[in-house]
Amino acid sequence: MATLEDIARVLGVTKGTVSKALNGAVDVSEAMRRSVVETAVELGYSRPRRGDEAPRIAVFITNMAYARPEDFGYDILVGFRKLAEPAGYQVQVIPLSIELEEDIPYEQYMMRHHYLGALFLGLSLRDPWLRDFETCTSPTVLYDNHVTGNPRVTYVGADNGEGLRLAVQYLKGLNHRNIGYLSSALGAYVYRQRYDAFFQAMRDNHLPCGRKQARNSFHQHICLDEHLPALLKQGCTAILCSHDTLACAVLERCREQGIRVPEDVSVLGFDDLPLCETCRPPLTTIRQDRTELGKSAYCALASQIEGVAPSTFLLHTELIPRASCANAREGELTIDN
After folding, report:
1. pLDDT-based confidence at 44, cuts 50/70/90?
2. What mean pLDDT do residues 104-123 have?
3. Are 281 and 322 in contact (CB under 8 A)?
4. In terms of DSSP H, where are the helices of the chain?
5. Do 160 and 196 touch, CB atoms closer than 8 A?
6. pLDDT score for 334
7. Strand partners, 83
8. How far lies 9's CA from each of 19, 27, 29, 251, in Å?
9. From CA 199, how far away is CA 213, in angstroms rounded?
10. Does the pLDDT of residue 6 top 80, yes or no?
């Protein structure tokens, strides 16, 4: 393991200067501090922990609400903390932004703030740090994002393939043959994975699966104003949505248009958020246990910190039937223009 002396020797400075730079001393220039941190990362230096200081791990969150019990990220954080804090770790939640990622490389941030490892929630495929994860040495766990080739990075999530199979099998059992898929934009790994899993599940169940059966957009109003009517005009008797928030918006739009759910069309979501039970009608969905996901994320990160390198940690999903699905209608559905 690299030492302060190794860093000082590479940079041609004193050990004291290196120590000051790593500890944020005001009498060290920003240029020197950056050089020290970059060199420390390159050499694989790990800062020793003081005896009275609890080891710190970070949870970076972006594109995900987590402050309230009904928010998607809330239960994940609860599950993570339930295991991390009794184990003696100090958990710090950090809102992540593109500006922060562009300002400082991931490894430098981790070393500057003395984090042993990190969990990431809500990353999109556009996040700059995704490139850093390909070579980072800090123990890292990504929820619903997958970086291959680096043993220091673990992917944790629900088995989306299993979830889509459960959904399609359930709808097929209700005599639905023409099933449409409606998704948020495919700029997130999880939505791209679920999109591909939909087609695989349709093929596995010997159901028609043309590309026009799956529509997506970054803007929810486009999903509701353009893609939903198109799927219904194609004769889809069931709409499977990439997440519950979109599915509940579909229920609301159908009610506004006089389209009966589930008599005219069945609607099925994914995630089992608390709002599913209060939708009109209550939403059938695929459950991923978010508290257990948080616990799994901690187990994966703890393994990484101890030198064990799991690649993928997937939890089973569960179909939760409610009133938004029923047997497929017979005959055509009239859609107003």
Report:
1. low
2. 93
3. yes
4. 4-11, 15-22, 30-43, 72-84, 98-103, 106-112, 129-132, 160-173, 189-204, 220-222, 228-233, 244-256, 290-305
5. no
6. 64
7. none
8. 13, 20, 18, 65
9. 9
10. yes
Q: What is the mean pLDDT of residues 192-209?
A: 96
From the list 281, 288, 280, the residue with the least C-alpha distance to 319 is: 288
Structure tokens at 295: 């616990």
Torsions phi, psi for 99 (to 5 deg): -60, -45
Report how far Cα 222 is from the mean position of its chain's Cα atoms. Answer: 23
* pTM, two decimal places: 0.81
Give the integer Cα–Cα distance in Å for 100 and 107: 13
* Residue 235 CB neighbour total at 10 angstroms: 11
Q: Say how many C-beta atoms besides its own lie within 10 A of residue 11's C-beta.
A: 17
Amino acid at position 222, single letter: I
Q: What angle (nearest 5°) sits at the alpha carbon of residue 206, between those of residues 260 and 223?
A: 40
Tens-digit pLDDT profile for residues 162-179? 999 999 999 999 999 999
